[in-house]
Structure formats: C-alpha cells, structure tokens
Specification:
Length: 102
C-alpha cells in the first residue's frame, strides 16, 4: 500500500469513528512533518510533550474517551505507530514501548 493511501485510510477511519471530519490525510502529514522537526530539535522529551498535547488539537475530551473505548482504538494506534516508524519519527525500539502503553 502506498504511503499516501495509508494516510487517507487512517484519516477516513478516524473520521468515521468520531462521526465528523476531524482529520485529513494532509493534517496527518503535517503532524508527522512537525514531529520529525521536533524530534530533531528537541529530542525524545520534546516529541513526548508534542504527542501528549496533540490529540486535544483534533478531538474533544469526550471524543478521546470514546475513541479509547472502541475496538478500533488498538488497530488505529498500531497503524499510526507503524506510520511513525516508516516516516523515521521513531525507531522500532521506541515503538515497542509505545505499543505497550496502548
């Protein structure tokens, strides 16, 4: 699957889950680009701060709570983690720790 298609499928899955146009493939690409920059300039600690605040830019607290209770949550999380590895934002080793948190 092409990376472009992966971005679009992830965005579509998220939007379907919350029932509104919360994200787009372009927004996800921009977030990945920003995450790469933060990782490069601020390191892992900066990336963690960025990632912690990120969901609140797109979702309400109620939507976040709902998303985390759905069966799709783990699958979407895994796909996003895989995307971050493919884009060079995080390493496979770091992904292993993230997967344990999800």
């Amino acid at each position: 699957m092409s990376r472009e298609r992966e971005y679009q499928e992830i965005a579509d899955s998220i939007n379907q889950l919350v029932g509104r146009q919360a994200v787009s493939s372009k927004k996800i690409k921009n977030v990945v680009k920003e995450a790469k920059y933060i990782r490069k300039t601020e390191g892992t600690a900066g990336l963690l701060r960025f990632a912690t605040a990120l969901p609140y830019q797109f979702f309400t607290p109620q939507e976040l709570e709902y998303i985390q209770t759905t069966p799709q949550y783990r699958e979407l999380s895994a796909r996003l983690i895989d995307l971050l590895i493919a884009e060079g934002v995080i390493s496979s080793f770091e992904a292993m720790f993230l997967r344990r948190q999800v």
